[in-house]
Amino acid sequence: MSTIPDKKAQSSATCGIHYCMGKRSSYIFGWLQAAFIIIGSVVGAGFISGGELVRFFPTSNYLPYVYAAGVLFFAYFALLLACGKKYGGFDGVLSALFQKFAPAVHAVFGLCCFVICATMLAGIDSVFFEAFGIPKSVPVLSAAVLAAVFFICRKGIGGIGKVNFVLVPVILVFVVAFAFTEKGGEYDFTMADNSRGLLYTLLYVGMNAFLAAPVVCDLGKSAPPLPVSLTASFCIAFCAALILGVICREGANALGADMPLLYVVGKRGAVLGKVFSLVSLCGIVTTLFSSYYPLHAATEHQKKRELLRVFLCLGAILLARVGLKGIIETIYPALGAFGLVFGVFLAVRLFKDRERLASPRRAKRNGHAR
Predict the structure, then answer these.
(1) DSSP alpha helix (H) spans, 133-156
(2) Residues 6 or more apart from 137 whose CB is under 8 A from it?
(3) How many helices (H) and strands (E) does the chain have?
(4) 217, CA 20 to 30 Å: which among 41, 91, 151, 365?
């Protein structure tokens, strides 16, 4: 009997291995792309600048609250992804959860996304003012960025994924590299007001997860919930801890700045300040994509959709005149409360649906057992 392997069988086996490897690499790429979209929806102007972090987290003994936020992000993102998979994306989730009130809730989400668009535009204005001295009253650059987002969003969520797959790693690498090259200082173990710290941590997670819900639910149609939510929540919490550490070590001047991390980086040299401005712009653009996309998609079936989109963009530019700090202090906490309520509704509905499906199966098993 010949021991020479059959060439046809060998070729078939090789193709099978390549197919499996291709399938695995495609799975990993999709997983990372989905995680980067979620990270990009959180790591925006307020996050990368440290502005929203120093307002939502204690500036002493902040690590327990950051760790708690990471766990809550993981749970909330996993919930959104699971619901997106079960109900067929964001529209399906709202229809299942709110039924005849779904259009009204959709309108609330639209309003919130509109506010975040304005926040990101205000962030762009602040970045260029701090780094290059361009007056915030001249929103030419923020309008140009929004115009680019306007046209790229025509390619759908796949276009957002490709942009985030490039920009999010740039943000993560810069934050980690800068934080680890800074001289370490003493960590302040002074206990903050636990009730206020926990409340604002909940509001922070609720706000970000609520605003990311349209994109995350749509990702749930194909993305694996656990690895994606674990990757995203770990990166967000890790970067938040590093940014807060750098700002808190710098002291009161940094904590009181409109963009605290930019203040710290700027003191290390003009060139590094310019680099940080570009990194901040990356974070702002990723969040601008995820906040503008639901508005873009909501007008898809309107007759004058392009005109409506132009009016939305102009309105966001006007609202951005409030300024980044003003929006964070007044509007963000209210969005956080909406997010917590929405998350509770979502978890209860998913639990009830699973119980309803599980009851006949349990009854059937008990019948066989008898």
Answers:
(1) 140-152
(2) 321
(3) 16, 0
(4) 151
pTM of the predicted model, to two decimals? 0.80
pLDDT at 297: 80
Q: What angle do CA 206, 222, 15 make, to 5 degrees?
A: 145
| Contact between residue 192 and residue 58 where contact means Cβ atoms under 8 Å apart | yes
- Contacts of 101-110 with C-beta under 8 Å, sequence gap 24+, read 106/298, 108/338, 109/213, 109/214, 109/294, 110/294, 110/295, 110/298
- One-letter identity of residue 101: F
- Residues 161, 228 contacting (CB under 8 angstroms): no
Structure-token pair, residue 370: 């008898």
Residues in the chain: 370
Structure tokens, 48: 């990368």
Q: How far apart are CA 252 and CA 45, in angstroms?
A: 21
Is residue 354 left, alpha or beta, with left meaning phi > 0 and alpha meaning psi from -120 to 50?
alpha
168: confidence class by pLDDT, cuts 50, 70, 90? very high
Please give the average per-residue pLDDT across 350-366, as a whole number: 63
Residue 208 CA to residue 333 CA, distance in Å, equals 11
Q: Does residue 250 contact residue 266 with C-beta atoms inside 8 Å?
A: no
Q: Answer whether 32's CB lies under 8 Å from 168's CB.
A: no
